């Protein structure tokens, strides 16, 4: 495992570092005074005092330490916040390393890092695991004291603090599902106020207690929507607003999925639904958790963690003074639950972590009839979507590095880089540059692994150049079993960024896409999109939706050397590697995509332009290459100027219009009989995924 690699202490001179008592004066900086011989040798030269490189300083922290300590090896601090205060006294004159000892660091509140917490004056601050240690930053509480609550049903219960209503429970490192039952969509009729029960078998919903905590979930062609029940009156399931109203408009909606009756419909979060092993139910009023163990599980031996915090860390300076030179090495981030969907807004997902909130002007009088395939008022909201806040958030920052870290058991996206301001506790979004995420592990997450960039106007056409998201490197990571609760989220998503590089990662075990690049469906590219100028969409008729004459910041994206497999487990739409909108200089190459069942391997969606796809190897898929050329608007053009060549595939078909008129070229790609890859393909397969580490 990557996270098991011991992280060596980087500072060779750490043993000479001074102890850091609160009263310790600032280190004395020696000066260089030239001798008489020096002055004689260089007459006329003005000699100035020079400062030698200062000795780096190490601050020690341990779960067994005390904030009355001095931060030395013998007397480590006991909390991360105490160590943070010490860093601020030293980082203007020294590289500083905060060395975390082995063990659990329970957080009472999310850690907040601002500009004063980064390296100052060219120095670097590192928060890293001690050699051989595995420090865990946790936002959760261990659940113990299980008793048998219902022997007939095999349900156990334990006491927890009253008021906790988590959307996830972590059992032996994995996400336990909330109690849920699947219902046939044909058993209900959909209205703007909620759902009408047509099948008498579902009238039992009216007899359930605590109905405001019951949730309805719809999984469609590419969306995973959540809405909360207000009450059940006879055959009427009245839903909480505005979440329900926002979930029945747009595309692939609650009431009219693109997938029709094949779309999933679930009722969630009632003790009556607790029927399947591995499910749980929380009763915040009574202060209890109920769990139905899987076969072979002994509840007395399980590690069960109840998440208390909604996020773990916010890293943000300002556009004028971004946080700089901050590294996190060998740390594990665990145990959160994002609670926003528990309320009246629900989670009105639009695509991959973006969602609608609030009441808005011009809402259609008959939304199901008039806005189940978009409508003018919906298009007016397209540049106002929110984004899910990540467990660890980075904005207004430069030269921040995550190295050999672990993101696991988190109730949302693991790491957010340069997302919307609404997705950041600091209230500041975007503005992330030279951020590196390398050799880290993302696993057992409720949401996606990494989300880069925002979705509003300042994301694609920044009003301040300092808002630009640029030079993001995601390399040699393992991403596995993510998007388990918010299933519509891509494992790795880059919306708008300049020169983002996704290099040699292994991505698997996702309901939706593996790697997604781009946003906007071509609407924000120079000259706009012909598909959105039509009368039924009327996108550019809406206030704030501009036809830009300048490109977005999306350009020169690199997706190279990745291994993407066992993705597309739930949704038909999207691709293992998916691209959207214009991206001059984009390169998707030397990736190995396999085991995508009947799904799409390489997908160039609306408005994709200037993308090169070459030397990829595709195996066991339904469609090896798909281009959404939007033939229905011909002879107008949207997706063009793409070049696909030199790829190998052993299955699947090609779709889309690859014509000279669209200036899309698909040449020199080779269909290979299974198990007979040529040398070039074998070389790509062998080199895909994380690279070997230098000794």
CATH topology of the largest domain: Pectate Lyase C-like
Strand order of the largest sheet: 1-2-5-23-29-32-35-38-41-44-47-50-53
Query: What's the β-strand tally?
Result: 54
Known CATH architecture of the largest domain:
3 Solenoid
User: What is the CA-CA span between the terminal residues?
Assistant: 16 Å
Give the helix level as a range of percent.
under 10%
- Helix tally? 7
Largest sheet: 13 strands, parallel
Describe it.
This protein folds into four domains: 2-138, no CATH class; 140-179 and 274-307; 181-273; 313-332 and 339-365 and 379-687, Pectate Lyase C-like, CATH 2.160.20. The chain is built from seven helices and 54 strands. The strands form six sheets. It has a 13-stranded parallel sheet with strand order 1-2-5-23-29-32-35-38-41-44-47-50-53, covered by helices on one side. A twelve-stranded parallel sheet has the order 3-6-24-30-33-36-39-42-45-48-51-54, covered by helices on one side.
Structural key phrases:
mainly beta, single chain, globular, 13-stranded parallel sheet, 695 residues, 4 domains
Layout of helices and strands, plus pairs?
Blueprint: H1 36-41, E1 57-61, H2 80-90, E2 96-100, E3 103-106, E4 111-113, E5 125-129, E6 135-138, E7 140-143, E8 147-150, E9 155-159, E10 169-171, E11 174-178, E12 180-182, E13 188-190, E14 194-197, E15 215-219, E16 224-233, E17 236-239, H3 243-247, E18 264-268, E19 279-283, E20 288-291, E21 304-307, E22 313-316, E23 323-329, E24 332-334, E25 348-351, E26 354-356, H4 367-370, H5 376-380, E27 386-387, E28 392-395, E29 397-403, E30 406-410, E31 415-417, E32 432-438, E33 441-445, E34 450-452, H6 457-460, E35 470-475, E36 478-480, E37 492-494, E38 501-503, E39 506-508, E40 515-517, E41 558-560, E42 563-565, E43 577-579, E44 582-589, E45 592-594, E46 600-604, E47 609-614, E48 617-619, E49 623-627, E50 643-645, E51 648-649, E52 653-655, E53 665-667, E54 670-671, H7 679-687
Parallel strand pairs: 1-2, 2-5, 3-6, 4-22, 5-23, 6-24, 11-19, 22-28, 23-29, 24-30, 28-31, 29-32, 30-33, 31-34, 32-35, 33-36, 34-37, 35-38, 36-39, 37-40, 38-41, 39-42, 40-43, 41-44, 42-45, 43-46, 44-47, 45-48, 46-49, 47-50, 48-51, 49-52, 50-53, 51-54
Antiparallel strand pairs: 7-21, 8-9, 9-20, 10-11, 10-21, 12-18, 13-14, 14-17, 15-16, 15-18, 16-17, 19-20, 25-26, 26-27
């Amino acid at each position: 495992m990557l996270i098991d690699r011991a992280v060596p202490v980087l500072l060779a001179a750490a043993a000479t570092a001074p102890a850091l008592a609160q009263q310790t004066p600032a280190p004395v900086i020696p000066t260089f005074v030239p001798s008489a011989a020096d002055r004689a040798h260089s007459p006329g030269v003005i000699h100035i005092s020079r400062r030698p490189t200062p000795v780096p300083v190490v601050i020690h922290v341990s779960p067994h330490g005390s904030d009355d300590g001095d931060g030395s090896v013998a007397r480590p601090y006991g909390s991360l916040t105490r160590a943070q205060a010490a860093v601020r006294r030293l980082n203007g004159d020294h590289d500083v390393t905060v060395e975390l000892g082995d063990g659990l660091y329970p957080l009472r509140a999310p850690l907040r890092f601002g500009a004063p917490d980064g390296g100052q004056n060219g120095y670097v601050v590192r928060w890293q695991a001690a050699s051989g240690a595995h420090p865990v930053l946790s936002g959760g509480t261990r659940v113990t004291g299980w008793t048998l609550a219902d022997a007939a049903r095999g349900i156990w219960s334990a006491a927890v603090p009253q008021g906790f209503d988590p959307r996830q429970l972590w059992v032996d490192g994995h996400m336990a599902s909330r109690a849920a039952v699947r219902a046939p969509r044909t058993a209900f009729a959909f209205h703007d106020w909620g759902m009408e029960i047509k099948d008498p078998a579902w009238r039992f919903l009216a007899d359930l207690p605590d109905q405001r905590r019951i949730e309805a979930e719809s999984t469609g062609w590419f969306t995973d929507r959540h809405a909360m029940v207000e009450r059940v009156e006879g055959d009427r399931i009245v839903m909480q607003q505005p979440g329900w109203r926002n979930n029945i408009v747009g595309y692939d909606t609650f009431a009219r999925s693109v997938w029709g009756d094949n779309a999933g419909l679930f009722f969630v979060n009632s003790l009556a639904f607790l029927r399947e092993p591995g499910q749980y139910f929380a009763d915040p009023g009574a202060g209890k958790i109920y769990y139905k163990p899987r076969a072979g599980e002994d509840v007395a031996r399980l590690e069960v963690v109840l998440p208390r915090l909604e996020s773990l860390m916010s890293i943000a300076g300002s556009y004028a003074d971004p946080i700089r030179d901050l590294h996190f090495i060998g740390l594990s981030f665990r145990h959160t639950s994002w609670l926003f969907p528990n309320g009246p807004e629900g989670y009105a997902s639009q695509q991959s972590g973006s969602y609608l909130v609030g009441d808005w002007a011009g809402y259609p009088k008959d939304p199901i009839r008039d806005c189940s395939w978009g409508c003018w008022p919906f298009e007016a909201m397209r540049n106002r979507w929110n984004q899910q806040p990540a467990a660890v958030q980075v904005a207004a920052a430069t030269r921040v590095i995550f190295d050999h870290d672990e993101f696991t058991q988190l109730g949302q996206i693991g790491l957010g880089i340069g997302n919307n301001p609404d997705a950041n506790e600091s209230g500041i979004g975007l503005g992330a540059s030279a951020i590196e995420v390398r050799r880290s592990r993302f696993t057992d997450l409720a949401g996606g692994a990494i989300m880069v960039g925002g979705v509003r106007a300042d994301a694609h056409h920044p009003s301040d150049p300092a808002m630009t998201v640029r030079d993001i490197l995601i390399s040699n990571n393992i991403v596995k079993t993510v998007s388990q609760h918010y299933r519509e989220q891509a494992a790795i998503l880059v919306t708008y960024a300049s020169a983002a590089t996704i290099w040699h990662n292994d991505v698997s075990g996702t309901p939706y896409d593996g790697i997604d690049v781009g946003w906007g469906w071509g609407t924000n590219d120079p000259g706009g999109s012909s598909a959105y100028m039509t009368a039924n969409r009327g996108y550019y008729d809406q206030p704030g939706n501009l036809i830009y004459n300048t490109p977005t910041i999306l350009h020169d994206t690199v997706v190279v050397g990745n291994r993407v497999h066992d993705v597309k487990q739930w949704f038909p739409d999207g691709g293992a590697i998916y691209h959207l909108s214009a991206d001059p200089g984009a390169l998707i190459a030397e990736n190995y995509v396999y085991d995508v069942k009947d799904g799409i391997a390489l997908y160039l969606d609306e408005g994709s332009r200037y993308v090169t796809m070459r030397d990829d190897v595709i195996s066991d898929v339904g469609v090896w290459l798909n281009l959404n050329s939007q033939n229905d608007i011909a002879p107008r053009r949207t997706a063009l100027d793409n070049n696909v060549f030199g790829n190998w595939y052993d299955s699947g078909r090609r779709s889309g219009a690859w014509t000279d008129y669209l200036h899309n070229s698909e040449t020199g790609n080779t269909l290979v009989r299974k198990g007979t890859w040529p040398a070039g393909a074998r070389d790509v397969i062998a080199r895909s995924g994380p690279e070997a580490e230098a000794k």
